Amino acid sequence: MLMSAVAQVRFALSVGLGLRFAPWSLDFLLDAVRATHREFGETDADGLELLHGPELDEETRRELQLRRFRKQAARAARDTVYYESLFERLEIDPGRLVHDDLLRLPLTRKDALRDAPHAFVRRNGNPTFRTTTTGTTGKQTSISFSAAEMRTFIALSAISFLAAGYIDPSDIVLLSTSSRAALGNSCFAGACARIGALVSIGGLIEPAHTLALLTEQHHISGKKARVSVLSTYPSYLGQLVEEGLRRGYRPADFGLERIIIGGELVSEGLKVRSQRLFGSVHFDEAYAMTETWPVSGQRCAEGHLHFEPGQGLVEVVDPETATPVLPGEAGTIVVTPFPPYRDTTILLRYDTEDTARPIAGPLSCSLRTMPATTNTLGKLRLSVRHDRGWTYPRDVLEVLESLEEVPLPARFGFWTVPDGVAVEIVTRANGMAFRGRVQRQLEERGVPVREIRLLEHAGRLLHPMPLRCDLRESSFALPTTAVPAVDSGLLRAGS
């Protein structure tokens, strides 16, 4: 079966055989996956397990990742301004790194990358594409990639989507994300085009307009009748659900089969409430970010985030000591993307500031061959520390978006007060009964609630959570403010 070609490539990457991505080899592999899909349909569970590579024992995985880390560190010390200075100061030879040396390397912070992005670009690199983060949770950060990297990202994404059955040539795909997310948009749209699907970039426009795009009937040979795949942010999906139900739409009005969702925390309540509008759609969740691209976490059915060890080193560390936390303890996700996936902008031990808890094995899920963490808990800067420990955004979000009285997306905030936290919520309900229900459910998730503010609109929030749906893109509009005419008599020659 042609699926074995995919498995062989993934095996080579996993065990570190030094495979280089030549365009012809990726094209051949994509053609093989296309042919397999045409003949056999979706890949079965056994085939998907092969795609994720062989199960490596702990010692083999550590050796693979140390070897890849050494190679990337040596290039960083030789070719980048930032890491050349760092390794000289620490007096560490990157080519001789052992595991204990990794913890001597300080974390690369967002501020360092944000303030001097060129210091992380290899001197002999060939950057052709510079992209930025959306800036939802802070000042934008920029990363540069080469044309070869972009081609590789697109080809590997196409192979992954098609082999996993996420997208096929008959799909009509709507990409409803911010135009500022240029890297993700380019790779996703490019992958859809390589597969042969019809993709449209809708952007973060008014929800009513997006709903019209989702319900539109298409009459294109070989394509489905309506948009079948939607890629978007959780908060914007929440807006679509609220607007769609308000306008009286029902599942029969849509043809959605799959929603690819990420970029923010995804709550179980959002997914359940979305099915009232769209019906029984399948959700594909992943964790990724511009700075650490293409290292990503794939969510399994049991709710773990799994990371392929050949793509990069993923650590979960104590934000204060930068040392690994134990399974079950919360820390921030730290990522080192490996070659040949990352060749232009090099980052070693990059602190994403996203929090999660590592999971100890052995695992029994479909992605058990890859190391895992819990689903992300939210940004550390949006979390609060109090007398009883930490409260993370997910702790509050999961409760609020399960409540019909809370409009989607949940608009809320929380902050430290004596012996716990205060929570503010935009809600359609009021009264002691609702307040008591919210408090009980938050406390069941370990949130020590001491105050609750129920609000009618988001403008009254004191500590609002930033949401990507607010990166709204407007359509063309004429100026509404009249501009006074200039008195020609006041003009002078040369003025």
Topology of this protein?
Layout: H1 3-15, H2 23-40, H3 45-51, H4 58-79, H5 81-90, H6 99-102, H7 110-115, E1 127-132, E2 142-146, H8 147-164, E3 172-176, H9 182-195, E4 198-201, H10 207-215, E5 229-232, H11 234-246, E6 258-261, H12 268-278, E7 282-287, E8 297-299, E9 305-307, E10 312-317, E11 331-337, E12 350-356, E13 372-373, E14 378-379, E15 384-386, E16 389-391, H13 393-400, E17 412-417, E18 420-426, H14 432-444, E19 449-455
Parallel strand pairs: 3-4, 3-5, 5-6, 6-7, 18-19
Antiparallel strand pairs: 1-2, 7-8, 8-9, 9-13, 10-11, 11-12, 12-14, 15-16, 17-18
What is the CATH architecture term of the largest domain? 3-Layer(aba) Sandwich
Let me know the number of strands: 19
Question: Tell me, what is the CATH class of the largest domain?
Answer: Alpha Beta
Tell me the CATH superfamily of the largest domain. Answer: ANL, N-terminal domain
Distance between the termini: 77 Å
Physical arrangement of strands within the biggest beta sheet = 4-3-5-6-7-8-9-13
Number of domains: 2
Overall residue-averaged pLDDT value: 87
User: Roughly what percent helix?
Assistant: 25-40%
